[in-house]
Design brief:
By secondary structure, this protein is α/β, with parallel strands linked by helices. It folds into 2 domains: 193 residues, Aspartate Aminotransferase, domain 2 (3-Layer(aba) Sandwich); 134 residues, Aspartate Aminotransferase, domain 1 (Alpha-Beta Complex), CATH 3.90.1150. It is built from 14 helices and 14 strands. Helix 7 links the parallel strand 7 and strand 8. Helix 2 packs parallel to helix 9, helix 3 crosses helix 4 and helix 12 packs across helix 14. It binds pyridoxal-5'-phosphate (PLP). The site of pyridoxal-5'-phosphate has 16 residues, from helix 3 and helix 4.
Length: 402
């Protein structure tokens, strides 16, 4: 990213900050992209603009801010930062990941069709099948790691491809570039839910996505203290449509939450590196454990989509799932009740390690037969490996599985 020269001028007209930043790499962008010292005081950290409205100096004469549903300076800096991290031109933040998904579906009209993955975040499946199906939008849930199966569902009404990769909780990998080709052929938009990977591991805009969606709640904020969503895109017409929906429907985040996320993002690269390192060691520990029957982690060479993961991701992340020998539900329940560092909880991507039981937690809203069809076993345990000491984490799993 080429920034050139940045000048910040305070209210008396004095230049208070000059920055010459040329070609920022990812680890620099997390800290500097989109943010700048406050023009009023020089405050290095983006202030929390806790205001709903802004003084107008005359009718139609304002400083670009009129009302905080539409724009807020703390949110603007976060949106610009997120766009830069995803190599996109435009960013928009929402009150939750679900609100961001909701805004994308509102681009569609009754009669339109969406092709999505069958191993999908439970809340996405719920809003598609329980909310928007009633508005006359048809959703096809297919195995998107097989492009032929995707092509088989394309028709003239196909308007959106919804990709989530790595998938949740089975950690399948979908070839983003390949689905982008199918989407372009059919003239439909493609949106990638990049929550599991974070922009540190993969940037779908570079692989042909039209929109990238995030549950900012997870890795991007990384501290399990905010619920937020985001969309980024390049096309300015598309951005204007999404911004119109954001402003019209009003699911915007507050400035305090934007501040917390901006703070969290500054260590995204450091956290992700540790998530990946810890994840690699835990995946290996589990694979070697006699009581573990299968580990779902894209870093293994025998993972069915390992080559695609290697091609489109920088590393393999800290998310994984595993089943126990015998595949008994009670054994899985016992393991998640015995862990001490891995807290039993919904969500993922925070500094602290979490474990979950998808069939009864995150994916309970998906009917059992649909779950089994997509290979989600009742004994499956999902881990979000945090950034704690690796020996402590392995010790915790050892005593829980024994
Ligand atoms: C959590 C999550 C969402 C929903 O985001 P919220 O911030 O909880 O509304 C969507 N997609 C994925 C992959 C998620 O993990």
């Amino acid at each position: 990213m080429r920034l050139g020269q940045l000048l910040y001028i305070d209210l008396t007209g004095k230049i208070i900050f000059v920055a010459l930043l040329i070609l920022m790499n990812f680890n620099t962008k997390t800290i500097h992209a989109g943010v700048h010292p406050d023009p009023t005081t020089g405050a290095i950290m983006t202030p929390i603009y806790q205001t709903s409205t802004y003084a107008q100096y005359a009718i139609g004469d304002n400083k670009g801010y009129e009302y905080s549903r539409t724009h807020n300076p703390t949110r603007t800096q976060l949106q610009d930062n997120l766009a830069a991290l995803e190599n996109a031109k435009h960013g928009l933040c929402f009150a939750s990941g679900m609100a961001a998904i909701d805004a994308v579906i509102k681009l569609l009209s009754p009669g339109d069709e969406v092709i999505s993955t069958n191993d999908l975040y439970g809340g996405s499946y719920r809003i598609f099948s329980k909310v928007y199906a009633a508005y006359g939008i048809t959703f096809h849930f297919v195995d998107m790691s097989n492009p032929d199966e995707v092509r088989a569902h394309v028709n003239a009404k196909t308007k959106l491809f919804w990709v989530e990769t790595p998938t949740n909780p089975l950690l399948r990998i979908i070839d983003i570039q390949e689905i982008a080709t199918v989407a372009k052929e059919s003239g439909a938009l493609m949106c990638v839910d990049n929550t599991f990977a974070s922009p540190y591991l993969q940037t779908p805009m570079n692989l042909g996505a039209d929109i990238v969606m995030h549950s900012v709640t997870k890795y991007i904020n990384g501290h399990s203290d905010v619920v937020m969503g985001a969309l980024v895109c390049n096309d300015t017409d598309l951005f204007n449509k999404l911004a119109f929906i954001q402003n019209s429907c009003g699911a915007v985040p507050g400035p305090q939450d934007c501040f917390l996320v901006l703070r969290g993002i500054k260590t995204l690269h450091l956290r992700m590196q540790r998530h990946c390192d810890n994840g690699r060691q835990i995946a290996q520990f589990l694979a070697d454990h006699p009581k573990v029957s299968k580990v779902y982690w894209p870093g293994f060479i025998d993972h069915p989509n390992h080559e695609v993961a290697k091609k489109q991701m920088k590393d393999f992340g800290g998310m994984m799932s595993f089943t126990l020998t015998g595949d008994r539900l009670d054994d899985a329940k016992a393991v998640v009740s015995r862990t001490k560092l891995f807290t039993l909880a919904e969500s993922l991507g925070g500094v602290e390690s979490l474990c979950g039981h998808p069939a009864s937690m995150t994916h309970a809203s998906i009917p059992k037969e649909q779950r089994e069809k997509s290979g989600l076993k009742d004994s499956l345990i999902r881990l979000s490996v945090g950034v704690e000491d690796i020996d402590d984490l392995i010790e915790d799993l050892k005593q829980a599985i024994q």
